[in-house]
Design brief:
The protein is an alpha/beta fold. The protein has 4 helices and 3 strands, in the order H-E-H-E-H-E-H. A 3-stranded parallel β-sheet has the order 1-2-3, covered by helices on one side.
Length: 152
């Protein structure tokens, strides 16, 4: 009888010890940079647009950063606390690209880098083991060089 009570107590306490990490924000804010994809020439718009009426040109808008490294300087102007839950996410191909400087810049500016590692090894993995092994090594190098607050 005593073991039954102990087992029941353990079953009730077990869910208390199994918790996922909770983010300090609901919802969290952030930005995601999408990879640039080229458009095939056949699908591209014609280079000879229709003649436009005589309209004065609009004033030039400030250019928005198009990659995480450029965004770090803009984020620094916000003066966020280090480790704030402002996520900056982007895809990292496992081709030797080193995202550590950009991730460090985001961290120094007060943001939280979120790296999406892109594996491109085709199936079946058993026949492409060497390529997968190279991508796993690259992922390990990226993860070990990333700031401590980086998410993957």
């Amino acid at each position: 009888m005593r073991s039954l009570k102990l087992l029941t107590l353990l079953l009730f306490l077990l869910p208390l010890s199994i918790e996922a990490e909770v983010l300090p924000c609901f919802p969290c804010a952030g930005v995601r940079f999408e990879p640039v994809q080229s458009v095939p020439v056949a699908e591209a718009e014609s280079l000879d647009p229709a003649p436009a009426p005589d309209v004065p040109p609009a004033p030039a808008a400030p250019s928005a950063p198009n990659n995480p490294a450029d965004f770090a300087s803009l984020l620094a102007q916000a003066k966020l606390e280090k480790g704030s839950p402002f996520f900056v996410a982007w895809e990292v191909p496992l081709d030797g690209t080193d995202p550590a400087p950009a991730a460090k810049g985001i961290t120094d500016a007060g943001g939280t880098p979120w790296l999406s590692l892109i594996f491109r090894t085709p199936a079946p993995l058993a026949q492409n083991f060497e390529r997968l092994q190279g991508e796993l090594r690259a992922a390990t190098a990226i993860a070990s060089a990333a700031p401590a607050n980086a998410w993957f």
